[in-house]
Design brief:
By secondary structure, this protein is mainly alpha-helical. Helices cover about 80% and strands about 0% of the residues.
Length: about 190
């Protein structure tokens, strides 16, 4: 019975670490990404349909996708910085945003590549085909790319200027370099008095 409890406890501990280490991030990343997707898809379709005017670059498939994805990137950065990866955000938010944009542009390039391939190379020019190419196929490939680079590069635990990393360093410094607390000092006083 004891070995079952130990095995069960190990399994529970492993699942808890997996939840804290990856699944919680995936869930939060998914929620932020879903809201960003709504922003992206709605704005893309409004631009393609000419709601903001006709006969300009923003109405073209690639122009509309570039604009809609850029707006979604800014929303997603805010959501991921202040919710998904808030414990690992960095003090230098300008550098963090720059790296975030680099990764996001890579994800956008994947989506635009799928759209270009479908729209210009394969000749599927309907609004439905544009949405499938960019917002289904391109989104799936781009999301996997972005999540991995956000998690392990932009908000990676190893970043020296990450807030959680700085907190751990300060805690270690206090443990090593500060004087013992009152309990240790009181015990030393009692020993010297005896």
């Amino acid at each position: 019975m004891s070995s079952r409890t130990t095995s069960s406890e190990r399994s529970t501990g492993l699942l808890a670490r997996a939840w804290e280490g990856l699944f919680a991030y995936l869930l939060k990343f998914g929620v932020v990404g879903l809201i960003g997707l709504v922003i992206d898809v709605v704005l893309f379709n409004l631009l393609r349909l000419g709601v903001f005017g006709d006969d300009h670059w923003a109405q073209s498939a690639l122009g509309a996708k570039t604009i809609s994805t850029s707006v979604a990137i800014i929303f997603n950065w805010l959501g991921n910085r202040y919710w998904t990866f808030r414990d690992h955000r960095r003090r230098n938010y300008v550098r963090e945003f720059g790296e975030y944009v680099i990764v996001s542009v890579g994800g956008m390039a994947i989506s635009l590549g799928c759209l270009w391939l479908s729209h210009h190379w394969l000749g599927f020019t309907s609004l439905l085909a544009d949405n499938i190419a960019s917002n289904v196929v391109g989104l799936a490939l781009g999301t996997a790319f972005r999540f991995l680079l956000y998690r392990y590069w932009v908000y990676g635990h190893h970043r020296a200027d990450g807030l959680s990393n700085l907190d751990r360093v300060e805690e270690a410094q206090r443990a090593i370099f500060e004087e013992p607390g009152d309990a240790g000092g009181a015990a030393a006083d009692q020993t010297s008095a005896a």
